[in-house]
Amino acid sequence: MNAQERTGGQLLVDALEKHGAERVFCVPGESYLAVLDALHDARIPVTVCRQEGGAAMMAEAHGKLTGKPGICMVTRGPGATNAAAGIHVAAQDSTPMILFIGQIEQSMREREAFQEVNYRQMFGGMAKWVAEIDQADRVPEFLSRAYHVATSGRPGPVVLALPEDMLVETATVSQPAAWTQLETHPGADQMADLAERLATAQRPIAILGGSRWTEEAVANFTRFAETFDLPVACSFRRQMLFDHLHPNYAGDVGIGINPKLAERVRQSDLVLLVGGRLSEMPSQSYTLLDIPQPKQPLVHVHPDAEELGRVYRAALPIHASPVAFAKALAALAAPAGTNRGSAVAEAHEDYLAWSAARPQTPGSLQMAGVMDWIEGNMPEDTIFTNGAGNYATWVHRFHRFRTFGSQAAPTSGSMGYGLPAAIAAKLAFPNRPVVCFAGDGCLQMTIQEFGTACQDGANIIVVVVDNGMYGTIRMHQERTYPARISATELKNPDFAALARSYGAFAETVETTDAFGPAMERALASGQPALLHLKIDPEAITPAASLSQIRAQAQLKA
Fold it and tell me: Rounded to two decimals, what is the model's pTM?
């Protein structure tokens, strides 16, 4: 590419185009007007969001579903602090993402200028790399590094501050070649060691998690599991990594784990952990594996060397990306016979029984019936998103994920995530159905982004599970301080009316039988849609009502 004089803002947009940025999510600000002006002439579509937290979560979800860095742009000060919620999701979920922040002019530093923030201090413990671009001629260099840092090893967020004067400064500089995904491959000795362990193990289990997966990697691992008679579980909110109806699938290692699966992990004589970290939620508060030395022989495969041994000391640590590791598995010699077929079948039957259970809960609208309709009618490639709350249990336990790239949910447990994630998913995959599950409290943290969906024509379906409270907190409240309700009740709007005010399709659903027809009308509407499900506050979990939880706590007291 021949160099020509360009402003810092133009160079930044040139670099984004060079590196293949597919979309920019932003809330505009005067601190980066030069970038917005350069985007006017660019081929990159821009999604204008209502609040920076929503914009950052959209960028994170884009990165999660595509494996390419999601791009977010916000203004300085309040814009950056709002965006921190999405940066935290990207950090804990190991998602590639780049956040650009408009910054004060360099001559005004250290005076506490208007909205001045030191972003290295603010994001230093959360992002993989935080920097400020002081010279326009270094923009291509910084962008190249940002893409590689965000995607290498354990992926994560990068934050770049853009001083306002730098963005209008001109420079003549060439753009480097586009970034490439770097893969770390396992060694031959490590793979031979793994093969020996698999040949002698009687009760092995694999747990898939983390990021850096592809559809091909999932297919490669599936063939390996079939060949070696290996039961396979998925880590918390990574359920799209293995077909739930495959005979080797054993269930998800997450919140509310099937007790039989938890026991299977505890009694295993070989745990193959690929891509994930087995942090607090999937590890059942760090009880499945002892720290630092698990009693089960652990083979830990991870793309970041610093993650190996950080919490769990593996018997066989393998520094490799899931893509490279799954490809290398094809070279392992098939065992003559493992005698594990019955154990694999038993693990799958345990999962089927756990996910097929349809508990009855108080009220005329049964979430079990809602899930039955979804399981029987939605295409296998439907993308499901959610934030945080007890309502998500119905999706995680009762929906059977069949295809890669069909789930976007925060392992960080961030409320408000489902709606922005659904918008990003629909914009990235416009021909696939996208369904967002959200609680009434969860939705209202980013509900303004429903306007973004309508403006961009992201025809998502939002299923609002409304019980008039912060349900998860109320559940814990009743367990610990029974009958002492404090700060968990919500006065909610008419969500359907609110959605219709944006010009969307919306209905209120109060009975189980009404859900299916309402969902069909939402799908046929050809526009963003919202279904407002009113459920009984007593229906707090699939296993117990609020009154039952309170009574149990009072008995213990």
Answer: 0.96
